[in-house]
Specification:
CATH topology: Rossmann fold
Radius of gyration: 14 Å
Number of helices: 6
CATH architecture: 3-Layer(aba) Sandwich
Mean pLDDT: 97
Number of strands: 4
CATH class: Alpha Beta
Helix content: 40-55%
Strand order of the largest sheet: 2-1-3-4
Strand content: 5-15%
Number of domains: 1
CATH superfamily: Response regulator
Order of helices and strands: EHEHHEHEHH
Structural class: alpha/beta
Length: about 150
């Protein structure tokens, strides 16, 4: 099993969008049984809340099922449960390293690094632009799948 955790600030926009899109992609490839996919927050601000309506609406618009989810904060215990901990932006990577004892096993990745660029996925909570976030998430998912293929993990 390849265990993947997507992480953003509140776990209601970018990480839940990524969880749903990546789940849809691996299922479409017939690889769903090879993955455990989840999402988390670095903050506690949205704990227990469902995905943002903008995330829900964007997924509905593109025909991707929403993975049922309630926001939760990542913990040190989660570090042992996942192979890939994928942060959406530089500030969340910084917090992940702080929260997860400096990432001793090298599990933390910035999402768009899988596409060969060092770009943050803009937070639609602030921009309101779920279209741009979706496009970046799609690029990140494709890049991550290519990375897994190149490294003979799938």
């Amino acid at each position: 099993m390849i265990r993947v955790a997507f992480v953003c600030w509140g776990n209601i926009c970018r990480s839940t969008l990524s969880e749903s899109v990546f789940t849809h992609k691996v299922n479409a490839l017939g690889l769903g049984d090879q993955f455990v996919i989840d999402s988390f927050a670095t903050s506690r601000e949205e704990i227990g809340n469902p995905p943002h309506r903008g995330t829900v609406n964007k997924l509905r618009q593109v025909g991707i099922p929403l993975v049922p989810h309630r926001a939760k904060q990542i913990t040190l215990a989660d570090y042992d449960e996942f192979d890939y901990i994928i942060g959406m932006d530089g500030i969340n990577i910084k917090y992940l390293n702080r929260m997860l004892n400096g990432d001793p096993e090298g599990k933390i990745y910035k999402f768009l690094s899988f596409t060969g660029v060092d770009k943050d996925i803009a937070d639609p909570w602030y921009t309101g632009n779920f279209d741009a976030t979706y496009e970046d998430v799609m690029k990140g998912c494709e890049g991550f799948l290519n990375y897994l293929k190149e490294n003979n993990e799938i």
